[in-house]
């Protein structure tokens, strides 16, 4: 009878991001006047967590393990850390979604302007081609065509390239908003 071996999955069920702090307050912006659960993460803490999450496999669920001294586990805000962090990342994902919608709005207006300029330039190029001096007419005619295409550079850049990094960031923030957050005693 053949022996059965357990096969390890290619990726563990979740990937852990580990943060070590002396006090829970270090995770959040100290000048934020809102209650603890609604506070913004400290900029350094957010950057650390996001950078670590970016390096983890995209298909895995995330877990954020916050290593704190035992005295911090009994702190009044200890029970609110998970909701605070998830709420913050959910909020940041919404901000990036808003920025993405705004980028596409600018892209649509830029495209309308660019196509209008291109049409006008093609018409102007046709008129310039009728100028009797052949070299000057050709230069002016080609210049109008080039100007028309250059006017479409920004919309092409927006619709072809600019939105991809924003979508990746939004998706990463959404994953972090769903992350399991646990306090671990050091």
Report on the architecture of this protein.
With 186 residues, the chain is mainly α. It has one domain. Helix content is 58%, strand content 11%. The chain contains 5 helices and 3 strands; from the N terminus they run E-H-E-H-H-H-H-E. A 3-stranded parallel sheet has the order 1-2-3. Strand 1, helix 1 and strand 2 form a beta-alpha-beta unit. The longest helix has 48 residues. It is rod-shaped and about 90 Å long. The N terminus is likely disordered.
Q: List the strand order in the largest sheet.
A: 1-2-3
**Poorly predicted spans:** 1-9
Structural class: mainly alpha
Q: How many strands appear in the DSSP assignment?
A: 3
CA radius of gyration: 27 Å
Binned strand content: 5-15%
Mean pLDDT: 88
Helix content: 55-70%
Shape: rod-shaped
Q: What oligomeric state best describes the polypeptide chains here? A: single chain
Largest sheet: 3 strands, parallel
Separation of termini?
A: 47 Å
Number of helices: 5
Give the helices and strands as they follow along the chain. EHEHHHHE
Counted up, domains total: 1
